[in-house]
Amino acid sequence: MEIAFDYTRSLGPVLGQFMTGLRDQRILGARAADGRVHAPPFEYDPVTASPPGELFEVGPAGTVVSWTWLPEPLDGQPLNRPFGWALIRLDGADTAMLHAVDPGPAGPAGLRTGMRVWPRWAPDRVGSIRDITCFAPDAPAPAAVDPAAVDPAVVDTAPDAVADGTAPVTMTITPVRLRYLHTASPAESAYLRGLAEGRLLGQRCPACGQVYIPSRGTCPADGVPTDTEVELPDTGTITTFSVVNVGYPGQQVTPPYVAAAVLLDGADIAFQHLILGCDPADVHMGMRVRAAWRPRAEWARHADTISHFTPSGEPDAPYESYARHL
Amino acid sequence: MTRQPVAAAVLGVGQTRHRSKRTDVSIAGLCREAVDRALADAGLTMSDIDAVVVGKAPDLFEGVMMPELYLADALGAVGKPLLRVHTAGSVGGATGIVTANLVQAGVHRRVLAVAFEKQSESNAMWALSIAHPFSTAVVAGAGGYFAPHIRAYIRRSGAPSHIGAMVAVKDRRNGARNPFAHLQQADITLEKVLASPLLWDPVRYDETCPSSDGACAVIIGDSDAAQASQAGGRPVAWIRATAMRTEPTMFAGKDPVNPAAGLAAAADLWRKAGITSPIDEVDVAEIYVPFSWYEPMWLENLGFAAPGEGWRLTEAGETEIGGRIPVNPSGGVLSSNPIGASGLLRFAEAALQVMGKAGAHQVPGARTALGHAYGGGSQYFSMWVVSSTP
Question: What is the reported pTM?
Fold first, then answer.
């Protein structure tokens, strides 16, 4: 599974200045009430909780306070070759900032606490912490960083005026991506395997006798395992529904469409499914429907094996037959 | 053995002017605005605060993991206990209750509750529509989830189809009396609401809450702190009772129109507050109504009306300011919805009413008020009753 979104961060006055500084190749810090200089600057003083006074430039060189070696970088990290993560105290600052350090061919042997490092600026700066590609042990030389070493997926984008260096940076885009593997529980697994065989398998709760489909393996009301398998037909009743006319990022069905609570015959809980095969205006409570399976060759251990539900043509179910499921 | 709780009261309330986008501030700056206003309202400084409780909606809404940690500096929480509460959309209400409980338990004297949402940084519909591997992704956001239950309510109660629009008109007009409300729609009419597009049939655009950036802060103190405030000429709102209940998102037999957890929480709340007839003994209610039809639904769930009868109160104008039970004089969630803060806003607005500080949306003579929030798939309920006297 993968979920991803590009969050748009409002930076506010302090971080906005800090990001604007990075675009202009300046690293800014702030002095706290106790006299210590924080770089990056704080939005609110950790001792007095007050906002900082005027920000000022620190560094750009600094000293490694502590570090660790990353032999296998992950997607989205600053460099796509092995590098060090270091806490770097910039000249003029009392706190350390976390950034990547590229020691070059020396590898981890080229990193030590107390070593001096300089920022390597990205050629295209937009007002982002990534405007510093990394730090390195040598005093800067032009174009020291091979742009091919930088993962293009993590380079932020910004409005033209910001990239041109003509407007203060007020926003930053933070792409967040989460890829994960869902391990199906035994009950989910049985349900999904059933779909691949064209069968609808639910489970009955031994305590309350209610039939769940899909079952999660336990009864949410009684908290006991639902271990009795029940095969259900692919016909049911629309208990209630809505017509979705609104879109959103990542939507899998194009509006307008009918999302209905379908109560399969013999089930005690409805599930949401798509209704096709009739005018949305004709869908109503109590309408009888039948599963529309994908072609046999496409049956798989996946919810999409049933494409949608469609009117079966049977007479409506009486209200009393499904009223307790509303 | 049950110990008698310490008396607790709301000492101060602060909120932002809710907007669709507050791009001028960070999340920390947004929260701080509400906190500074609450401290000023209570005549206190950060050094008077013993602990901080933060509430916000699911992390996916803003993509910040554990935002409470990075907010510690902004909230003056360094060196103090800092807790985060999470009960989906009801989180603001739950945050108020946890804060009250810390005082009522005698653990702290003055505790700050902060709740926030910056919807402009993300997309809540996307965050609420993440597909499960074993179900079909047809539920479109919160509206997609709640619209079928609204249809079920209309069928069960036989309510006329314009009730939802009446609620929207009332709440938006109330919101126009509240300078902090996001939507300012003094001129809205029933005809306009009924003519607005159906987003999730039967829910229309104008019957839906906005997406807001906003924050709310509430300071709760013990009876000594409350008496010190009163001695300084500052009114307080005494917390007479709090209640929370939970039920699963889905189970066979769940009644999403009139959920058992809400009924149980309300029964517990009225019993603790010594209230036997809510409609006669409560002067004003701030109820979590993100879709207009939830006003009559929650009026029934809370016991202001019998099942199936809540819409009659709305239709008769009894939920307007001046009616038997004014609901959401602040404009409610239908006028401002910074999701994580919306529950605490209901609790705070209830407090403002009994403190007599609600300004142009004050219910005259309000002495007892309800604050209410719900969240998840109608599964988390939190509520409190506040009064002008202990």
Answer: 0.93
